[in-house]
Design brief:
mainly alpha, elongated
């Protein structure tokens, strides 16, 4: 089940990334302060790490699953823990943009 949930989250993260790019363009037209633009750029960078990290982990996990190689659960768990930290920090930045600075709200 975990493998398929990771695959689904990788696909959804691609959709979220595309939506974020659209909002970044729209926010750039409004003319926010330098601090907000800096947070947006950091949020975008961390989001890219999450998207590509999810895709990479999913491909590695699928490869190991179908090759039936030796048990690599510890390596996958360590990478998954790093990915969870990246997702948490990205969510913090996104929440700060919306709730503190009002970015993306009408």
């Amino acid at each position: 089940i975990g493998l398929w949930l990771l695959g689904m989250s990788a696909v959804i993260s691609i959709v979220a990334s595309i939506a974020g790019e659209r909002e970044m363009i729209r926010a750039g037209q409004i003319g926010h302060s330098t601090e907000i633009i800096e947070i947006m750029n950091r949020h975008e960078f961390m989001g890219n790490i999450v998207v590509w990290g999810s895709i990479t982990l999913f491909i590695i996990w699928i490869t190991l699953f179908f090759k039936n190689m030796e048990d690599r659960r510890v390596d996958i768990f360590a990478f998954l823990a790093l990915l969870v930290c990246a997702v948490s920090f990205t969510a913090y930045l996104g929440g700060k943009l919306v709730w503190v600075h009002g970015v993306g709200t009408p």
